[in-house]
Structure prediction request, 98 residues.
Amino acid sequence: MRTRYFVTDGPLATTVSECSESYFREGLAAGGGGVRILRRDGFVDLVTGSRYLEPNTAIRAEVSEAVLQVVYLGVVIAKYEEWTDYALFTAADYPLGV
Prediction:
């Protein structure tokens, strides 16, 4: 399994970009929440909100028609069609032991 790290882009958080683990940890520590996605191809994607998110908000995940969607303030910011499992987490839960 290979782990990849993603963070939301800017304060509007309409997309995500791949980032370093240290930048991922910074976003997670800011309280943006996290989603761990286990993909069918063996990758593990960890997604968090950046430090620029609105206070007291966080990303979340939901499944719609078998597609996993990462959502922030009602906007889908990432979609996963080839996934096997997902979990929500916070900075207190990290590292996850994936």
Remarks:
- The chain has a mean pLDDT of 92.
- The helical segments are 21-29.
